[in-house]
Amino acid sequence: MPFVALAPASRESRLALAATRWTTILEARPDLAPAVALQRRLIGLVVDLAEVIEHGRLPKLSLPPKYLAAKLARGVPVLTGEPIPLPVAALKPTLLRLCEELSRGGAGEAGDHIRSALVETRMDAGSLLTASLARDHKVIRAGGERLGLAADLLWLVAELTVSPFAHALQRTWLDASAGEMTLSTALASWTHGYCPACGSWPALAEIARGHRVLRCSFCALAWEVPPSTCIYCGKGGESFVTTAPVAEPHDRHVEICSACAGYLKTVDTEELLPFPLVAIADMGTLELDMMALERGASRPSLKEFAPRR
After folding, report:
1. Side-chain half-sphere exposure of 148, counting CA atoms within 13 A
2. Which of 115, 231, 302, 307 is the least buried, fewest Cβ under 10 Å from its Cβ?
3. What's the predicted TM-score (pTM) here?
4. Closest Cα partner for 219 from 83, 70, 46?
5. Are strands 240-243 and 263-268 parallel, antiparallel or unpaired?
6. Do 235 and 257 touch, CB atoms closer than 8 A?
7. Sequence-distant (≥ 6) Cβ neighbours of residue 283 within 8 angstroms
8. Where is 67: in which H helix or E strand?
9. Cis bond upstream, residue 87 (ω within 30)
């Protein structure tokens, strides 16, 4: 079974677990206090939006199981290329508030400029969020450059806003696929390192009960691929190296592939983190990013898929 079903989590339980994780980070890295403070505010907004999305009405995707199974067999994620209507009216207030928090947290005028462009409709919120759901970084970058906006910050604020919707969609899809033999078989055969729901790379892998579970950086899907192989190029053996920081704790490692120079962080855990708390684990393992970068490794850009014909 390549994917791992996550138990539903309430707003209160997510925030309580998040608080515990932030406390642990600050005990080890007091210098991250400003970053933690900002992440608290951002994740609080995302969790609140997730509650709205999860208790609202999601669009019904009329996608036949055989059609989705054929996509997965070709290595194409389920949501890729599908015309999915977004609840823009529900998402836009959070989009604007995220801009405000990022401005307060250090983005300054760059965040203010994005908010102004959205309020003044020089940038259409629906188009921005649709491009984010489609993982189309080229469209977002081009739109940002056209308006003189910081493209990376634009990508971040759009991703934070639409991620609760993407998470709800993938949960709905997984629930629907459980009783469809053709689709379940196709999903069981998924061996790619990018998310079978949205196509994003994982933020990291959680090692839970002996299983190396990849966690999507966008929709938080949890899935497994063959161990001891690179999630980017699929190679293993001598070209695939797992290393750990010299200092404690010893529950985290980084996998570095000399064949493609990609890397993946791994963290031991008793339970998989609920959406959107994977971002906290990502922040808490910054030393692994530094270790990988010092060794010339990096994370590749999003994978592109051929348009549907």
Report:
1. 5
2. 307
3. 0.92
4. 46
5. unpaired
6. yes
7. 25, 32, 35, 36, 39
8. helix 65-73
9. no
Q: Which two three-digit tokens encode residue 195?
A: 């998310």
Going by the DSSP 8-state scheme, the letter that residue 103 receives in this structure is: I
How far apart, in whole angstroms, are the C-alpha atoms of residue 203 and residue 25? 17
Taken in order 288, 289, 294, 296, the sign of the CA dihedral is positive
Tokens 């996509």 identify what position? Answer: 71
Residue 268 main-chain phi, psi, to 5 deg: -75, 140
pLDDT, mean over the chain: 90
Answer whether 166's CB lies under 8 Å from 123's CB.
no
SS3 content of the chain, % helix, strand, coil (to 5): 50, 10, 40
Tell me phi and psi for residue 229, to 5 degrees. -135, 155
Is the model's pLDDT at 19 over the cut of 80?
yes
Tracing tokens 């995220």 back to the chain, one arrives at 98
236, two tokens: 């293993």
Nearest to 151 by CA among 7, 159, 214: 159
8 vs 238: CA distance, rounded Å: 40
Instruction: pLDDT band for 1, please (50, 70, 90 cuts).
Output: very low
Question: Residue 126: helix, strand or coil by DSSP?
Answer: helix
* Phi, psi angles (nearest 5°) of residue 240: -110, 120
CA angle 287, 111, 300 (to 5 degrees): 40
- With 0-12 CB in 10 A as exposed, 13-18 as middle and 19+ as buried, what is 181? exposed
* CB proximity list for 128: less than 8 A, separation 6 or greater: 95, 118, 140, 143, 154, 158
